[in-house]
Amino acid sequence: MGVEPLTSGVSDLINELFSLRSLRSLLLVLNAVILLLLFPFRGRRRVSVKSSEEKVGKDEKHEGGRKGSAPVVRVPAAIVPQRSTAFSIDQEAAARRMLAIRRVVQDDPDVIREFSLFSSARGDNLFIQSWTPVSFKIRGVVFIMHGLNEHSSRYNDFAKRLNANGFKVYGMDWIGHGGSDGLHGYVHSLDYAVADLKLFVQRVLSENAGLPCFCFGHSTGGAIVLKAALDPEVAEQVAGIILTSPAVGVQPSHPIFVVLAPVVSFLFPRFQVSMANKKGKPVSRDPKALVAKYSDPLVYTGPLRVRTGYEILRITTYLQENMSRLKVPFLVLHGMEDTVTDPKASKKLYDEASTDKTIKLFEGLLHDLLIEPEREAIMDDIIQWLKFRV
Ligand SMILES: *[C@@H]1O[C@H](CO)[C@@H](O)[C@H](O)[C@H]1NC(C)=O
Description:
This protein is an alpha/beta fold. The protein has 13 helices and eight strands.
């Protein structure tokens, strides 16, 4: 029984977005852009030949523009602005939110798990949840930032392990993900997620005065946490950060993408790189965990949107150049066989940043460490590091 190769969104982005095939589709888009740019001039010329704008208007009215007076330009379907209105995006997000809420309220009644909506500075509603230890004294707070295309409830097991060790846990679905507002899998700016994280950490701190607060981030979530922690204000409030497979090193396979990505992502931010997500590299060696991940409707499995990919490139460039400014204590964990984010970049982070730091590299492990068969040992490492600091 062949299980279809499954992959994570980030790997699609990194491996697929930069492949030659994708470049070809990007060039196609650029071609179409040039066509569109030429069109108005041609149109205007014709109108002036007709000498009467009013007449053109009438022609269109009576003959539906079919008489040949109105030039018809055909553009590839892929670049036609999506018909989906803000309304249908909202509806889709509302359906996701219902699902996210159901996961929380239908959990084991012995668990204190709650959700709320958090309003971002931009006015988006973000889905937040918390897990509170039942019979343990709370020693610290852990804030979880999930990876690209997934959502906070995927960290349910991890959160419960943390609870059992005296940590209260908060998770946020970032914009375009899980139970939060926005087009599924679309991130217009990762700085939104950075800002939302900062804002929410403020609230967590005010609700848990005196407790040490830690941020955990996986993959792109790790990059978001890192960028936030580079802000001196955040660095002062946070007792430490934990990063699994952070998206610090992500090299485009073709340098021309670096030139094209900003242009295309600006013009057609939601343009999807077709065929992403099917043939990417697996992120775990546990086939069951992969099936669970990719059959979850709250996990985005559609093609990567150009803007989202460009944003990840942008944040990794930022981190590469700025990571030496990092001061907060950190624990970074990375699988040596990770093909989505580069373990060498974690090594570089370890070499260049902070003074209180720990790195754990795992021979043979892939990208999603917390769904690898060795997940219990990974969680043990994280909990041990945390316990040492409270
Ligand atoms: C590094 O950080 C500085 C200050 O925030 C910023 O201006 C600069 O653009 C960053 N470097 C990159 C490559 O983004």
